[in-house]
Design a protein that fits this description.
By secondary structure, the chain is of the alpha/beta class. 41% of the residues lie in helices and 20% in strands. The strands form two sheets. Strands 1, 2, 3, 4, 7, 8, 9 and 10 form an eight-stranded mixed beta sheet that branches. The chain is globular, with a radius of gyration of 23 Å.
């Protein structure tokens, strides 16, 4: 028997043992060659940018390199669905907005994933709030939401607003604002916030509901006016803009977050190690400053805190979706 053949047989025979030893070494802290951070959205977007900033700061003790993998389609559903077939050793981490797990179950009759069983919470990634802005087709005298709604009543053919997509949180915020004052605000969905804003500053639609950070450059350039923000307190990214609550819209406090998840059933040791790596990356000054430029606040959490946050948002959005009466099917 040749040495090469004997070596091959020995390697094959010991493959299970070698795999077990490798897994044990990984559990004890041996770094991965490559960490994949998966997002369900295309390159250049907010989710993708967050992933790339975090991946760049993953400590070398966790992974020698970290790359972003874009599994786009179905509004972020494909990436979550794919998680079920991905390894649960910590070498692949999903990043997703809350909506895919906390709102989608209320608007889709059937999802290709279980928002509880198919994911394991690791850490919060960042939080952000929303704004309502108007463009040049709305008179300059309109400076707040009540005045915008009054203008909509007087101009029912123009009473509409854009958002980054049907079923996204900004869609529901705009709909709930109109519902609160019995104004029929028609929703115009776009494939992203920027396309909606470009139509707004071009005069094709009067208003847009979207993440605060998406409006900043256009507000600073005098092409849009931010009427309100959606947080419990004024946003540090738009401190001169009053919140919806300040403007008399009781209980209208809305915030979104991006979180990091491993496949469902991942072991506690693997989760703890991934959590530690993400906390390091999210605390890095370049990560914090980079996300702030986008109106995002870098923020990590324990796995238990993220699980509790998701559960609370899931329960919050069920009645709100029902009140709006929207379904995606």
């Amino acid at each position: 028997m040749s040495i090469r053949r004997r070596t091959l047989l020995q390697t094959t025979a010991f493959a299970p043992l070698l795999a077990a030893l490798a897994h044990r070494a990984q559990a004890q802290g041996a770094p991965f060659e490559t960490l994949k951070v998966v997002t369900g959205f295309s390159p250049g977007g907010t989710s993708d940018t967050i992933c790339r900033r975090v991946a760049a700061k993953i400590p070398a003790g966790y992974a020698k390199t970290a790359v972003v993998e874009n599994r786009t389609g179905a509004g972020g559903q494909i990436a979550i669905q794919a998680l079920k077939q991905l390894p649960n050793d910590g070498s692949v981490i999903l990043q997703t907005p809350m909506s895919m797990l906390g709102i989608y179950p209320h608007i889709y009759k059937k999802l290709p994933y279980d928002p509880v069983a198919d994911v394991t919470a690791v850490s919060l990634g960042c939080t952000f709030e929303f704004g309502i802005a108007v463009g040049p087709s709305v008179p300059a005298s309109v400076r707040n939401v009540e005045e915008f709604l009054a203008w909509c009543r007087a101009n029912p053919m123009q009473a509409n607003f854009g958002s980054p997509g049907a079923g996204a949180m900004p869609h529901f915020i705009g709909a709930l604002i109109g519902k609160a004052r019995n104004v029929d605000l028609k929703h115009v969905p776009y494939r992203g916030t920027q396309p909606a804003i470009l139509e707004m500053i071009g005069g094709q639609i009067p208003a847009v509901s979207g993440p605060i950070g998406e409006f900043t450059q256009h507000v600073n350039a005098g092409k849009a006016r931010l009427l309100a923000t959606s947080g419990a307190e004024r946003s540090k990214f738009a401190p001169n803009t009053p919140t919806l609550v300040e403007q008399g819209f009781k209980d209208m406090v809305f915030a979104e977050w991006f979180g990091f998840f491993l496949p469902g059933g991942t072991g506690a040791e693997v989760v703890a190690r991934a959590n530690g790596a993400l906390r390091v990356a999210l605390a890095d000054k370049e990560t914090v400053d980079g996300l702030a430029l986008m109106g995002l606040e870098a923020k990590s959490s324990s796995p238990a805190e993220l699980s509790a946050l998701l559960k609370a948002d899931f329960q919050k959005w069920g009645p709100l979706v029902k009140a709006v009466g929207f379904t995606a099917d």
